[in-house]
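Troubleshooting entry. The earlier prediction with HC1 gave an output that would not parse, so I re-checked the input for stray whitespace and re-submitted. Clean input:
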Amino acid sequence: EKYMIIDGERVSFTDEKNILAVIRKAGIILPTFCYYSDLSIYGACRMCVVEDQWGGIIASCSTPPKHEMEIRTNTPQLYYHRKRILELLLAAHCRDCTTCEKNGKCKLQELATRFGIPGVRFENTNPIRPTDTSSKAIVRNPNKCILCGDCVRVCSEIQHVGAIDFAHRGSKMEISTAFGRDIADTNCVSCGQCAAVCPTGAITIKRDSHDVWEAIHNPKKRVVVQIAPAVRVAIGEAYGYEPGENTIGKLVASLRKLGIDAIFDTSVGADLTIMEESEELLEALEEEDRKYPLFTSCCPGWIRFVETQYPHLMKYVSTSKSPMEMFGAVVKEYYRKQDKKEGKETVSVAIMPCTAKKFEASREEFKRKGAPDVDYVLTSEEVITMLQEIGIRFDRLEPEAYDMPFSIFSGAGVIFGATGGVTEAAVRRVVEDKSPKALKEIEFIGARGMDGVKICELPFGERQIRIGIVSGLGNADNLLQKIESGEEHFDFVEVMACPGGCVAGAGQPFARSTEKRMRAEGLYKNDKAMQIKRSEENPLVETLYNDLLKNREHELLHVHYAP
Ligand code: HC1
Ligand code: SF4
C-alpha cells in the first residue's frame, strides 16, 4: 500500500493525481483559488503550498504524491506565506465588497476572513480599468480579477471556445479577449461557465431583476412568467432543500407573493418543441445518404457555437425554436387581445438555469414586430435574490399550482432539463409502440446519466437509429470532428452547452458533480410521478394546434438564424 505522511499522520493513496487530493482525503481543507478537479492544473495562486521534509515549499496541486513522502501543511513559514499572498491579492483588488455581486460568495473575501487579515498594508497602484458590460449574459470587471485563470481554462478546455486568455506580462498581466475587443464581439457563446468558476466578482452574471421589478411595480404591465424544467430541482437548495427535490409548488407560491400576474411552465413549450422537432427527425430519417444528423436547437450556447465555429452545419440544426421561445410566442399571442381591451402590456419573463438564454431572448430572430417574445430572462440565482429582497420565506410557504390555461405538461417536457432528456422525449414521440413496456424500454436506451458523451442505438421500423448525446461544448466539438471525418454517423444529435445539461446551468446555485447528478435524478423522479408521459398526449398541445397556433406554426414555432 502506498502512503504519505501528512502532518505526522500516515495517509494512504492510490491514483490521486496530486498531493492536494491526498491532503483533502485526510480531511484538511487547504485554501485554493485556481484548483478545479475538472480543469488542468495551473498552480498559479500558490495558496495550496506545503512544506516537504527538507523545508522546501511546493505547490500541492501540481505535485504528484510519492510513496513515503513527508509533508507539513501547517508551519509558521506556510502561515506567513499564505497571509502574504492574500495581502498582495487584496492590495491589487478593487474592494467595494458591500455592493459587489459576489458579496458573501467571494473566495477572496472568505479567505481574508478565515485568515483574519486585519487591513491591507499596501496601496493599490493598478489603474482602474473599464468594466465590460457588452454581453447580455456576463459582466467582466478586471479590477476584481486575481489572475487565477479558472475562466480561461473552463472556456478553452471544457467549452473549446477560447474567447478569453491571458494578455501582457508581469504586473500588466490581465485576462483579455483577442485584441481587447468587447466580449460581445467575440465568439463567446454566453454559457456563463466562466462566471460559475470565477472565485471573485471579476466575471459575474448580468442581472435583469431591476427591470423586472419595475414591470411588477407598474400597474399597466401584466407580468407573465414561465419556469424552465431545471429550476425546480435546484432553487430549493438556497433554502436547505436537497439538490433534486422538486420545490416548484413553493416557487409558484413565492412568485405570486412577488406580484407576478400569471405563472406557467416552460415544459409546455418543451412539449411543443418535441412535436415540431420529431417531425423534422422523421423527415431526416427518410433522407437517403444523409451525412449529418439532425441537431437539436434548444440550447442557445450550442447555437452560437455552431454559428461561430461550424457555420456550414447550421442547416442541419433543427429549425424548431427552443421551448422558451415557443412558449414566449404563445404567451404574447394569448394576451394580445386581452391587453388591448384592458389597456395593458404583457411583459414576458422566463426563469432559467441558464445565462445564454438572456442572449437568446435578445436575438433579432426572436423579435416579432420589433418586440421580443421573451422580454427578460432571470436566472434561478436572481430569483433567489429577489425573494430575499422582500423577505419571502420560501420554505414556509404551502405549494401552489400554476395558473390557467397553460397548466398541463408532460413528463417528457420536464426531463428536458437533464442531458439526454430531449432525446428521450423525442424517442417517446417517434416510436410507434406506445405501451408502458415500450416506455420502460426507452428508459434504458442509454440516454440517462451525467456522462458528457452518450451513444444510443435503437430499432426503428426496418432499421436502427443512432443517436449521440453530448453536454459540454468541448465534447460537442470532438463529436462534430468525428462526424465530419466520417468516423461517426448519427441520425440525431442532442447538444447542451453546459456539462450535465440545464440542471448544471451557470444560473443555478453553485454545484459540484454530485449535486448536478441529484438534480437530474430529481427530474426523472418528477417524470415518474406525472400522469402524462408523452408530449403528444398533452391535451393542451392539441388545443393550441387547433386554435392559437393554427396556420401560424411556422411563424410562432420555427426560427431561421441570420447567416
Ligand atoms: Fe433548459 Fe430548455 S431544457 S434549454 O436546458 O429546451 O435553460 O431547464 O428551459 O428553452 O424546456 C434551460 C432547462 C429550458 C428551453 C426547456
Ligand atoms: Fe467562454 Fe462561456 Fe465565459 Fe463566454 S460565457 S467567455 S464562452 S466560458
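This one parsed fine. Residues 228-230, 266-267, 269-270, 298-299, 322-324, 352-354, 357, 416-417, 501-502, 505 surround HC1 (ligand 1) (CB under 6 Å).
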